């Protein structure tokens, strides 16, 4: 036997609205802990980008898969925490080098323009032949409104970064 419960608001014991409905099926989540935070996913669609050797270089991840709140600036590959959305965020990043003999590649996420906040590194022996090397990272970061994040890479040998309009070789979200 099924039951139906009809209400226009759910409140906690102190009378605070947790969830409200307008009666037309539109629900508003009022509790901060239950709200979704802004999300984005972007990637490098160009065939390649050539970072300078031994230099931190911003990655041109200018193509978006999605941007739920318009917080990702695709032209500048920058995600900014919007008003009312402070909280914990998980950032994921993957960087793939082109055909390389690179000895070292470091994927980095910068916070607020200058601080190297988190990084992941891969080193390997210089050899010959075709080698496509990837570095991946994931980080949980406590963010305040206005904090912004940008993807960077450091390469000890410029092998170029691999991008694609159909595959996500170099990406972040």
Account of the protein in words:
This protein is an all-beta fold and 173 residues long. 0% of the residues lie in helices and 46% in strands. The protein contains no helices and 16 strands. The strands form four sheets. Strands 6, 8, 9, 11, 12 and 14 form a six-stranded antiparallel beta sheet that branches. The protein has a five-stranded antiparallel beta sheet with strand order 7-4-16-10-13, with no helix packed on it. It has a three-stranded antiparallel beta sheet with strand order 1-2-3, with no helix packed on it. Strand 11 and strand 12 form a beta hairpin. The radius of gyration is 21 Å and the shape is elongated.
Instruction: Give the number of DSSP strands.
Output: 16
Strand and helix order: EEEEEEEEEEEEEEEE
Largest sheet: 6 strands, antiparallel
- Arithmetic mean pLDDT: 82
Percent of residues in beta strands?
over 45%
Low-confidence blocks of residues: none
Shape: elongated
Helix content: under 10%
Q: Count helical runs.
A: 0
Quote the distance from N terminus to C terminus: 44 Å
Give the C-alpha Rg: 21 Å
Structural class by sheet pairing and helices: mainly beta
